[in-house]
Amino acid sequence: MSFCLFDPRVNLTFLALLLVYQIYFIKSLSAETGRSRSNTTQDGSQTCANDFLKPKICPTKNEDRTHDAFFRLVRLNGVKIGHIREMKLEENKSHRVVTRSFQPLLFEINEFLSHKECDLLIQLSQQSHLQDSLTIKGKGEGIGKEEFLKKLASKNLTLEKTLFCWKPVYDTDRDGKITLQEFIRFVDLEKYVYPTKEDALPIFTLFDFNSDGFVDDKECADVTNATYVEFLFHVEKLKSDPRYFIRFSESAVLSKDTPVVRSLQRRIAKLTGLSRTLIEKSEEIQASFHIKI
């Protein structure tokens, strides 16, 4: 289970969405509860009068002990998109659980985490030392020029250059010139990286020989293989920049023994009907810091 830490004041709702999405489909039930269809449990407690958790059962003092023996997969009842239910997940505080989607089933729970809890989670993640995400491979140093040239040995550069100058595809306004934005589109579609204007401009100038902000037919025709190789090398360097990875983040595993995490686990148990022991024995909560670019 993971949380994303941007500005916590803004993302309390998102945290709750992510939380419920990851665990909405699991619920632990005892064998006695699963077999019983009556309105009372074996110890005499009444079944709950809401259809959010299925089957319906009120918490009992022995809930964890009985539920831990058997597990059963069920689905929370979203009723309909926009449906609102009030749930008491903490003492003296009620939360509005709003159904936002059915595929996947998502619930919005505003202020699921308080401002203070967000600060504590950020502090805990910093104390645990944020680690680079496993999706990050390198820090932008990329491939060396010599190794890159070896990779190009089998490429038909003349054909690639022709593709770049193929106006009907990338000259969207049909004016016979390729603009910086049209160049970015070319890089995106053909090289699978969408550079910012700041990153694309130095590469674009490799083809803009007269520095007028456009690449016309003559400039395309004058592009040498050496210039085109330089362009490809710049693109390859961009692909090794973490800002252009599918996910660029740092994360930290939070200790289960901290009060804020234990409080969070109790809230999750009430929200989902999961056994506390099942929650405590599941994977650790992770805090993720995503770089905004």
In a few lines, what is going on in this structure?
This protein is 39% helix and 16% strand. The protein starts with a strand and ends with a strand.
What does this structure look like?
This protein is α+β, with helices and mostly antiparallel strands and 293 residues long. Helices cover 39% and strands 16% of the residues. The chain has helices at residues 12-23, 31-35, 63-67, 115-127, 145-151, 157-164, 167-170, 180-191, 197-204, 217-222, 225-239, 259-272, 276-280, and strands spanning 2-4, 26-28, 71-73, 84-90, 93-102, 105-109, 131-132, 177-178, 215-216, 249-253, 286-290. It has a four-stranded mixed beta sheet. A hairpin with a 2-residue loop joins strand 5 and strand 6. The longest helix is centred in the C-terminal third of the chain and has 15 residues, at 225-239. The two termini are 25 Å apart. This is EF-hand domain-containing protein.
Largest sheet: 4 strands, mixed
The share of residues in extended strands comes to: 15-25%
N-to-C order of helices and strands? EHEHHEEEEHEHHHEHHEHHEHHE
What is the number of strand segments?
11
Mean pLDDT: 72
Number of helices: 13
Describe the strand arrangement of the main beta sheet, using strand numbers. Answer: 1-11-10-7
Structural class: alpha+beta
Low-confidence stretches: 1-50, 54-61, 63-70, 134-140
What would you call the shape?
A: elongated
For the termini, the CA-CA separation is 25 Å
**Quaternary structure annotation:** single chain
Q: Share of helix among residues?
A: 25-40%
| CA-based gyration radius | 28 Å
InterPro entries: EF-hand-dom_pair, EF_Hand_1_Ca_BS, EF_hand_dom, P4HA-like
Protein name: EF-hand domain-containing protein
Organism: Pocillopora meandrina
Keywords: Calcium, Iron, Metal-binding, Vitamin C
